[in-house]
Structures are given as C-alpha cells and as structure tokens.
Amino acid sequence: MDWGMQNRMSQLIQADGHCFFLPIDHGYFQGPTSCLEKPGETIAPLLPYCDAIFVTRGVLRAAVDPIGSKPVILRVSGGTSVVGKDLANESITTSIEEIIRLNAAAVGISIFVGSDYERESLTNLSGLVNECENFGIPVMAVTAVGKELEKRDARYLGLSSRIAAELGARVVKTYWCKDFDKVVCGCPVPVVMAGGPKCETELEVMEFVYDGMQNGAIGINLGRNVWQNPYPVAMIRALRSIIHEKYTAKEAWDLFNSLKNK
After folding, report:
1. What is the span of the domain harbouring residue 127?
2. Exposed/middle/buried for 141, CB within 10 Å: 0-12, 13-18, 19+?
3. What are the φ and ψ backbone dihedral angles of 119, each rounded to 5 degrees?
4. Which helix (H) or strand (E) holds 132?
5. Do residues 175 and 193 make contact, with C-beta atoms less than 8 angstroms apart?
6. For the whole model, what pTM was predicted?
7. Which residues are tagged catalytic?
8. Torsion angle (degrees, nearest 10) of CA 251, 254, 256, 258
9. Model confidence pLDDT, tens digit, residues 205-214
C-alpha cells in the first residue's frame, strides 16, 4: 500500500482497527429526509463522536465547516430517486478532479448485484477504482439493494461483498444479517455495517452492532438510527462505546439511558 493510500485509510480506520462512519448522504435519492432537512445543524453535536462522515459534495460545501472537519467519504454515485423507476440505475456523478479538490479521504459508490443494472453498477465501481487508485484514494463499495429489502441474507450479501472486493474496493459497506460471519469470512477487505431501516428500539440497534463486531466487522456506517433518534448524542456515544471501547450491547444500552436526559 503506497503512502497516500495508507495515510487516507489511517484517517478512516482508527488505531484500534475500528471505525464509526456517520452517513448523511440520504438526500441524494430521498430528498430532505426526516431530521436531515438541515444537515449541518443535525451533525454539529455528533461530529465529536464519529471518525468520518459520508456525504455528497453539495451538502459538504453547503453544510460542513471545512475548518477542523472530520475526514470525508464522498458519495460519488447517484442519478436516481425514490420516485423514479429504478434506484439501481446509478451513474458516477463526481469527477476525480472534484474528489481531489474536496480533499476526500475516500469515496463511496453503490453496487446493485442481481438487479437489472448489475453490470452498470459493477463497471461503475471498476472504473472508479481504476481512477482513484492512481491518486491513492480508497473506494468504499456499498452493497445496496434498492427497494428489495428481502435480499438482506448472508448468501446474497456475501456474494455482493466478495464481488466488490474482487473489483478493487478497499472497504465494503454491507448490511448486518443472520450468519454475518459468513459475509465477513468471504470478503478479503474490511467490512463495515450499514444501519438499514430504523430499528424499533435502541437496544435492537446495539445488539446487531455488537453481534457484527463480534463476527468480524471493523465498524459501522450508520446514520438514521443515530440522527433520527430522539436522543442522538446519547445514541452515538453508546454505539461508539461498542466500536471503540468494547462495550457489550447491554452496557451500551445502560450508557444510553444514563446519558439521554442529560
């Protein structure tokens, strides 16, 4: 690994080998998502507790202070919306010059294995890797499933994650699932967990995060279960305790309850 790539990866993955990425890129296909209508205000109290933010260039420029910023994972795929025909029909939206200009520590792109646009999304990933490797910029592949949530099982996610790694992704973001260890064992690059749909209880979130960490994930890329929570700071601190302080789910839940009314 060359110096630039190693330096950028070290900004994202902390000395303990773990990471907490905070995604706020949802608006690129959802528009003004609940609790993220004003993203700068939403993330301001959360930034001290995450290791990097996952964000589009528009929100980065408009809502994130460039002075003392957290490392940026730049969302560079898009072109579809929730009211469109198919979320999988994405393209690359951001040039390599723009990625460098914005000083991104990494870039993120969705792939849609098994969709009508499988080939397009996988060749998007391959082309992006080809460009970014020339400049020492890591690519994070997101194993997206569009609106087909039933695909979140170990067999499908293991297939998607391995393909992403084979095509050159340095990190893979995928969903937690039953038998998550099978997904991680089949993926030769670091795996981070996505949050997925908003869970019913805080403890439910902490339990799947803890299980994923025990089964080989290096961290999380989790947004809605943090900033849509009524107590977002307590939630992010509790989840961080699992990622970086080796708390169990129950210990993290106790921490959440002790912090939420302060």
Report:
1. 3-224
2. buried
3. -60, -45
4. helix 118-133
5. yes
6. 0.96
7. 173
8. -140
9. 999 999 999 9
